[in-house]
## 1
Amino acid sequence: MMTYLLTTAAQAWAMAPQAGADGQQSGGGMQLFILMGGFVLIFYFLLLRPQKKQQRERQNMLDNIKKGDRIQTNGGLLGVVTGVDAKELTVRIAPEVRVKIARGAVAGVLKAAVTEPEQAGDKDKPNLSKSEESK
């Protein structure tokens, strides 16, 4: 993309009108070159820079996934990481149900860590306190 823009600017510069018969130069080529440079800067600051920042943040998130993190996959599955490999994660999506997924399939980390009873599968059991029992 950058090569195309520079080539186009060079062609515009070459085709710009040169000094006229009376010795005056029109300067249209320089204005076009400055305009093309402005477009390149706008393109960089509005599209490329934010995209690279987002890619760095995502890669950092994927690299920092650890055992016990609650994640959401691109397919919409929610689960808790129970094992971490270089390219794969083992995720518990229900009690006694574990799946292996690629690291790239993680859409985001929902919670930093999960409590121990939740990892053991006690999450689905009702938690009745004394106030609820008396009702």
Note: Residues 124-135 have pLDDT under 50 and may be disordered.
## 2
Amino acid sequence: MEVTFYFNVRNREQALCQLVGKAVARGLTLNVLAGSEAAAMALDRLLWEQPQIGFLPHCAADADIAPATPVVVDYRSNKLTIRNALFNWTDGIPPDFQQYERVIEIVEQDDAQRTAARERWRAYQAHGITPVAVDMLKLGQTTGGAA
């Protein structure tokens, strides 16, 4: 089980769309756990709009097509079935996170988000997991583009 923090992200929503798109292209199935119903609805709209020349197939956990859909977006963790990866869009560590192969955290260049991410980092460590940190500013400098 791996927990990855992508930090120094300029635009959290754009980074989510890019990372979800890459995972879907690799044939992975994903859950995106939102912190509230409103946040889940906002993510739903976002994934219909991005990328601009396509869309990322997704639905809510209780949709009839959920088992066949690569991305499930929901705020009800108890409705999610375990998939390859979980994108955590909440303020805490997700329940049942250890059942996933991978958990992804995306952290903007915002002091409040960084503080909350540090708390989640320590919470994962308390569960015996050493998270991996990916600095998107440095990655952008070496690859010519940043999320």
Note: The chain has one domain: 2-143.
## 3
Amino acid sequence: MRDLVRSSRDLQNFFRSGIDRFFADAFFRNWPFSAQEMFPPVDLYQTDNSLVALIDLPGVETKDVEVTATVDSLTISGEFKPVSEDGEVLWQERSAGKFYRSFKLPVHIKSDKVEANYKNGVLRIVMPKVDELKSSSIRIKES
């Protein structure tokens, strides 16, 4: 029976991803300013009437999050609080510390109508769009 051998391209990708993981683990783990800590992942969607932002904030309490909206920007800030357990730490990947995200929005929103809900570790922010200015035909009256 013949052994299966990966193609050279598969081997290159395999070794490259392994090397990437090694350096990420060796040099970036447990730094006080890791990417996850400073920038929680955000998805931004657009519907006909609103913009919707989804922000992953697992384990964060709503009292530790602040959302600010203006007519053309959205800012989310807060803090991941450390969770400690009794015993010796054998492996630690979860970060603790403050986070901050700020976005210039692609369209204007009604900042006084923004709604935020938090469920299952995901913050959902719905931002109604400003009604677009519609042109209309003006009838000229004779005097």
Note: The chain is about 15% helix and 30% strand.
